Structures are given as structure tokens and as C-alpha cells.
């Protein structure tokens, strides 16, 4: 345990998403923490799509960093470099560290302030409300959940989902995919598989746009949403001391303690790691908690052999389908409907996530 009055170790956390926010909050009273993020807020990302159909939902799911991170320095900038002793930022700062945690997840250009982000959701909501025909491109969890949200809140809308793969939700099993397709079809969502659409090529028709798929089909749309994968937030690392710690997919290679391999004082958590598991928010938070325990131990002078190991998560996944239903893949069964919906879809774990950061659930 640290002696009273002993100087705290300098910890720099890069990235204010699910993992980075949890770690910064957990260690703010155990180290001299500098928290680097290009935006001023943390966002519960799996609630984004609900916020598009109900903008007021964002009042709880978009949270200023300072609301939960009360004891440390926040640098609202982008990290652009790492040396053996410092982190360099886009606003010309050099921030020294004893320990470093990288949690930059996926690249997603979003506004700097919470208010600007909430205004974006309001604009997306207006787009949906004023449209009769909605096109969604991408059949992963984002595209499927958005189709579910729109079809539930606006059943009068004509929603078309185009996906290049042979089945929806390819990150989980075919049984869950088939059940999801059946559910969407029952809600009058038109699903086109093994097709692509060029969003830059369309013809006008009485104020609507007509898009054409690679299979030669036509899709009428008043607005569209691109729900394909986002690139990893690791491109900037290629010019740093960690350039050789990236695997072929741009992920940071970590050991069982979530330290970057070959590094004693640099950790990586969340989607940017090469941990072999489905990339999900609740697992990113588990990364943060394991890394936080290990950092506490090391900063207090504990022995490395007492560090906690991280065991990759199971193949459990829950994808929300509107406000009542969900599809859930558990290790031994796949369920769809009201029961898995009770687990996730009503509140999307927003209250739980807020509580974990010391905030009121509502």
C-alpha cells in the first residue's frame, strides 16, 4: 500500500470510450491521472441507435467526462505520438508518464462537445421522422439494431436493409442470424443479402432517391444510414515506439495481463487489443477492471507474479430489436423475443453503466 504523502505515479490514459472511461474513473484516486480524449464526453455507444429515434435518451447516455472523472487532468486533444517517457498530443503538449494505457478503440469522428453530439442525434431523428423510405447499409449489429429501432418506433416507415454478406450478424452463429432475419421480415423490414449499393450513385424520383444494388435491384430512399464497420483507432501508433507491437490487423498485441507484449508499463484495453473474443462493450469494461487492478498493484510496488490475468469472454452476445425484443446467443442456446429483450432492450444497460461510473442511473 502506498505510504501517506508518497508521490503518486503518473498515469496517462488515451481514449475516452467504454474501456478508457472505466479505467480512468477506477484509478483517479490511486495515481496522478491525465486523461486524453478528443471529445469532452463519454458515450454509451450501444445506446446510440435508440437515441436516433428518441433523442431525449441521449441525456443519460452522453456524459461529460468531468461528471465521473473528478480527480485528474483532462486533455481534450488527440494523441499523435508516444516515446518511452511521454505522450505527444495534437495541441503540442508533451505529457510524461510512468504508466500508460491505450484505449483508442475504433475511429469515429464525432463532435467535441456533448451539446453538439446531442444536436447531431436531433438532426438524425428529424431525418427519420420526415422520411417515408429509409435505407440502411450494413447487416452487422449496428444495422440490425437501427432497423429494429426504426421499425418499432415508426412502423409506418418502409425500411430496407442491404448487406453484402450471406447472413445477418455474421459475428455470431447462423441460428441467431436466421431468427433475426425472420423477426425483421415480420416487422416489414425488407432485407437484401449478398448485395452492395453505391450510395454515390442514384437517380432522383419525385424528391426521393433511387439506388441500385449489385444484383440490379432498385431501392427507393428518402434518407440512408451507413452502418458498416469503423476502422481501428490505431493508425497513429504506426509512427510511435509501439509500431512493432501491432498485428496484421492493426491491433495491439497484449499478454494475459493486458500489457502490450514486451512492455512493462504500457497496457492496452478494449477493441484495440488482439484478445481473441467478440468485441463488445461489457468485455471492454472487464478489460478496464483487470488492467486497473494490475496497475494498482504495480504502482504500489507489488510483485508481477500477483497480477490478475484476463480470460477471453465467451460467445455470449445480445442484439437489441426495438424496445421489447432482442436476439441472444448464449453458449448452449439461442433465444429471440421478449425474454432476451428484458435483459437488454428496455434500458440498454444505460442505468447500470452510469452506476458503474458513480452516477445516478436516471
What does this structure look like?
- The chain has 362 residues and is α/β, with parallel strands linked by helices.
- 28% of the residues lie in helices and 25% in strands.
- The protein contains ten helices and 20 strands.
- It is globular, with a radius of gyration of 22 Å.
- The model is unreliable at 1-5 (pLDDT under 50).
Write out key terms for the chains shown:
alpha/beta, 10 helices, four-stranded parallel sheet, single chain, 362 residues, globular
- SSE order: EHEEHHEHEEEEEHEHEHEEEEEEHEEEHH
**Number of β-strand runs:** 20
What's the story with the biggest beta sheet?
5 strands, parallel
- Please, what is the average pLDDT? 95
Helix content estimate: 25-40%
Q: Separation of termini? A: 36 Å
- Structural class estimated from helices and strands: alpha/beta
* Rg: 22 Å
Q: Which oligomerization state do the chains in this entry correspond to?
A: single chain
- Cα shape: globular
Strand order of the largest sheet: 5-2-1-9-17
Give the DSSP E fraction (strand runs of 2 or more residues).
25-35%
Can you give me a brief rundown of this structure?
Pfam families: Pyr_redox_2. The protein is of the alpha/beta class and 362 residues long.
Q: How is this fold's topology laid out?
A:
Blueprint: E1 10-14, H1 18-27, E2 32-37, E3 41-43, H2 48-53, H3 58-61, E4 62-64, H4 65-68, E5 73-76, E6 79-82, E7 86-89, E8 94-96, E9 99-102, H5 114-130, E10 133-137, H6 141-153, E11 158-163, H7 174-186, E12 190-193, E13 197-205, E14 208-213, E15 218-221, E16 223-226, E17 266-268, H8 281-299, E18 317-321, E19 325-329, E20 334-337, H9 338-344, H10 350-356
Helix pairs in contact: 1-8
